Amino acid sequence: AQLVESGGGSVQPGGSLRLSCTASGFTLDHYAIGWFRQAPGKEREGVLCITSGQGTLHYTDSIKGRFTISRDNAKNTVYLQMNSLKPEDTAVYYCALDFTCPTRESTYWGRGTQVTVSS
Predict the structure, then answer these.
(1) CA distance 41 to 25
(2) Which of 20, 54, 65, 71 is the most buried (most CB within 10 A)?
């Protein structure tokens, strides 16, 4: 069973990216998926979570109004839409899976995708 993130890249400030987290070996509609990020020299922090019931949780206020999370259970994929990106959003973005919104102690993680916001 694994999670694979994709969609990262380099973008200018104000730009947008959509990250995907695709699961294999899991039926995603049974689980919550959280997006986390880790910038160089900083601790991993939670970004957004979507529950199996389509509820959402913001782990941090810094992305409110800019990032949204959605899921397509038919594709076994969760998306993180990131708009109005700022340089401080630069990080490796990871998705994690758990029965409720994941924490840093959750067991199942993807390997991450790099997002760089720079002019």
Answers:
(1) 33
(2) 71
